[in-house]
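User: Teach me something about this protein's shape.
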Amino acid sequence: MAGELPFEQPIAELRGKIDELVKFGAEKQIDFSDEIARLEERYKALEEEIYSSLSVKQKIQIVKSPQRPTTLDYIQSVFTDFIELHGDRLFGDDQAIVGGIAKLGEIPVTVMGHQKGRDTKDNLARNFGMPHPEGFRKALRLMKQADKFRRPIVTFIDVTGAYPGSSAEERGQSEAIARNLLEMSLLRVPVICVVIGEGGSGGALALGVGNRVLMLEHAIYSVISPEGAASILYKDSSRAMEAAESMKITAQDILELGVIDDIVPEPRGGAHRDLKKQAELLRGKLLEHLQVLSQMSPDELKEDRYRKFRQIGAYDFLQAPL
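Assistant: First, the predicted structure itself:
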């Protein structure tokens, strides 16, 4: 089991024993079929036990796995005929956000998302997936182009947070994020946002104002990273998992709170275990929601988006206990 996570070690060890027994039996021409069958049953039971009750900590480990599919992985496996577009026409091309034109089935769409690197060199080029203002402005340029040509928009969210460095602040980081929130709320085309990994803070919200917001089964979505929350609450970032337990950041928690609209199932063990299957599951969900949204007029789409976000966290004071 390549690239297993810490909590997957018992499964990996048992799988290794099964493979060794199969190999030994073949070499010595000994029939171990009964023993192998019993071990396979144990393997299935252990796998079910672990993956059916994942903790928040274990979900975070899955989300942070270096093998987890990125935006470009999904663009290449879910869409066809992708043409990448670059630059914000103001400062430069931020590689922490990628986007362009593609087809979802036979439907032309504009697709974009945060892009983390696959290795150290790629991560440095993409600033570990943390966008500067020009990244958000590039995304907004593509959204406005999509609005002009009546193309639906799909965004992929996977970011710990917008880059907090001085260079980003000098170029207007907060204004760029706020501008995206405003402009996305006014788009006249269907917008579907998908949290594929980490959905952290304003960096996530800048691509997250959609008619439908989906999350992959093991993704997380929060106003701040668990490490940041622990630093504020406990003055100790090492207590990040403790903070995460109370933050309600899993897809299941977020759906119950009404912040998202649907959960996209993942293959057992996470999206990185079977990208092809994950792409099929995601494509089906995108087409399902897009079919509904495509029946709405531009004004209805704007009203739908406005109503969706206005009702998040709504509190009825008339029903509040005294």
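Now, about its shape. The chain has a mean pLDDT of 91. The longest helix spans residues 9-28. If you'd like, I can walk through any region in more detail.
User: That's plenty for now, thanks!
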